[in-house]
Amino acid sequence: MKLTIFTKIVLVIFLLLVSTLLLYYLTNRSSVRLIKQEIQRVKLNELTFLAGDIDNNLSKVSSFSDFLVLDKDVRLLATPSFLEGDFELNKLKLRVSDKLNLLHALNNWNAEFMVIYDEDSSSFSSTSTSSKLSELYLETHFRPFWQYEQTGDGTYLTYYLAHPYTFRFDPEEVSYVVRAKIDTKNVLAYLDRAKGTNDNSAILLSTAGDVLTSDTEKLPFIHELTSRLDVGKEMSGNRLIKLDGEQYLVNFTALSNFKDWYIADYTPISEVLNPIYANQRLYYFSSVFLLLFSILLALLLYRDVQIPIRKLLWGVRKITSGQYSITLHQESNDEFMYLFERFNEMSKEIKELIERVYMEQIRSKEAKLRQLHSQIQPHFLYNSLAFIKSMTELDEKQAVIDMSISLSRYFRQTIKFENTYTTVRDELELVRLYLTIQSLQMDRFIFTIDVEEQLLDIQVPRLLLQPLAENAILHGIESLRMVGDIRIRGYSNGEYCELIVADNGCGVEPGRLDTLRNAIYYGADANTAWALHNVYERMRAMLGSEANMELSNGDLGGFQVTLRWKVVREQEATEIC
C-alpha cells in the first residue's frame, strides 16, 4: 500500500513523539540506574572506609594484647616464686598495672585490658573490674578472633590470648590469659559520629541475627530489614529490599577482624528519586500537550497540503491515461496555485514531446544498425571477391559457384532494413551463410548450429549473431594450427532465452576478461571489442534492460559469448517497431 504525503507527515509526527517518549524513557531509566549505581558506589565506599577503620582499631587493640601476652613482666608475674620477697612482687605488679593503664589510654575505644593468672586466680585490669580464670569459659570463648559477648551488664567485643602463646585448645596448659574487652556503646558512638549528614547511621549485624545500632527507636524496623538481607558468601555488596511498600538500598561489607559480622547501612530509594519522578510527570504532561498540538497541525496540513496534492495526482493519472487536455484549478493563492498553472501548461506540450522522443529513439536504433552493417560489409565483400578471383584463376568452378550462391543469399538477407527485427531462424540462416563463405575461404574450420525449435520464431534484433561469429574466426580460429571448431547453441525455458557462440581457440586470459567486460558494458575503450559493444547496446535497447551478454572461456577451450534475454513476443516486437 502506497502512503500519501499527508500520511507520511502524520507518521513522522507520531514517530517523533514516540521516539522522543522512548528516548526520554530510556534516558530516565538510564539516569535512575546510574543514580542507583552511584549511590551504591558511594555508600559502599563509605562502608568500606568505616569497616577498614573498625578493623584498624580492632587490630590495634589486638596488637596491644599480643604485646601483653609476651611482656616479660607479665610472664614473670605468672611465677612469683622466682621473686625475692614481697617488695619485688609488689613492684612487679605495679609495673604490670601501669602498662595496662597505658594501653587503655592509648586506644580510641576505651578498651579494657585484663591479665588473669591461674596459680592464685589473681587478675590485673586497666579498670577496677576483676575476674577469675575459671569464669572465662575458655572452651566457649577462646577463639583467635574478636567475638561478641552478652553479659548481665551489657554487650562487648572480646579478644582472648593465652600463655603459652601457641595455646589454642587445651585450657589445662594455660598459665595466664590476656583479655581485651570493648563496650559496644563505644563502637556505636563512633558509628553515630561517622554518619555525618546522613539520616541513618551504620549498623553492625552478624550472620547469627544479632544487630547493633545506636538508633534504638528503629530497632524493630532494622531487625525486620536485616532479616531479609541474605549476604551469602559475599564479602561486600548491596541488595534492594522492599519493606512496607518502600524500596531500600542496603549496602554491606564484612569486617575482617570480627568474624561473621558485617557493617551495613540502608537508604530509602524514594528520597533520592522523588525529584526525578517529579520531572518525569512534568515531561509526560508536556508530551500530551504536544500530541494535541500535533493533531491540530496534521489537520491543517491535510487541508492545505494533502487536498492540493490529491488534485495533482488526479491530473497525473489523467495524463497517464492519455487525456492531455486536462486542467486543474486552485482557489488559494499559494505555491500550489503556481504548480497548478505550470501543470496545465505542461499537459498541453507533453503529447508533442512524447512523440518527438519516440521518433528519435527509432531513428537512433536504425542508425546504430546501419552503422554496424556498413562496417561489416566492405571488409567481408573484398575478401569474398578476392576468393572468387583466386578460384577462377585456378579453374575451380565449383568453388566459384558455391561462393557466388552463398554470397548472393547472404547479401539478400543483409539488405533487408525495412524492419530492425528478425526471427532467430532468419538470423541463424544469415550466420550459416556467413560461416559457409568463411569456411570456403579458409578451409580449416567446421561449425555446428544446434538451437531448440521453440526458439526459432522468437523476435531478435538483426545482426545479433554475425558479429559474434566473425569475432570467433578473427580472434579464435585464425591463429590456430589445427582444425577450428565453432558451435552455436540455443535454449529457451519459455521466459528467458540463451544463444551461445563458442570456439576452440586460445581463449582469453582471466585478467583480460575484465578489460573486455568494461569495454563492452560501459564502452570504456572505443578501440576494444567495438562490435560486441554494439551488439550489447542494441540488445539492451531493443530487448529490454534485462538483456545481458556474458563473456567466459568455454568448454571447447576457447572464447565463449552467451546472450541472455527475456522473451519478446512477436506482437510486442511489432508494437516497438
Automatic annotation (TrEMBL):
<feature type="transmembrane region" description="Helical">
    <location>
        <begin position="6"/>
        <end position="26"/>
    </location>
</feature>
<dbReference type="GO" id="GO:0005886">
    <property type="term" value="C:plasma membrane"/>
</dbReference>
<dbReference type="InterPro" id="IPR050640">
    <property type="entry name" value="Bact_2-comp_sensor_kinase"/>
</dbReference>
<dbReference type="InterPro" id="IPR003660">
    <property type="entry name" value="HAMP_dom"/>
</dbReference>
<keyword id="KW-0597">Phosphoprotein</keyword>
<feature type="domain" description="HAMP">
    <location>
        <begin position="303"/>
        <end position="355"/>
    </location>
</feature>
<keyword id="KW-1133">Transmembrane helix</keyword>
<feature type="transmembrane region" description="Helical">
    <location>
        <begin position="282"/>
        <end position="302"/>
    </location>
</feature>
<keyword id="KW-1003">Cell membrane</keyword>
<dbReference type="GO" id="GO:0000155">
    <property type="term" value="F:phosphorelay sensor kinase activity"/>
</dbReference>
<keyword id="KW-0812">Transmembrane</keyword>
<dbReference type="InterPro" id="IPR036890">
    <property type="entry name" value="HATPase_C_sf"/>
</dbReference>
<dbReference type="InterPro" id="IPR010559">
    <property type="entry name" value="Sig_transdc_His_kin_internal"/>
</dbReference>
<dbReference type="Pfam" id="PF06580">
    <property type="entry name" value="His_kinase"/>
</dbReference>
<keyword id="KW-0808">Transferase</keyword>
<protein>
    <recommendedName>
        <fullName>HAMP domain-containing protein</fullName>
    </recommendedName>
</protein>
<keyword id="KW-0472">Membrane</keyword>
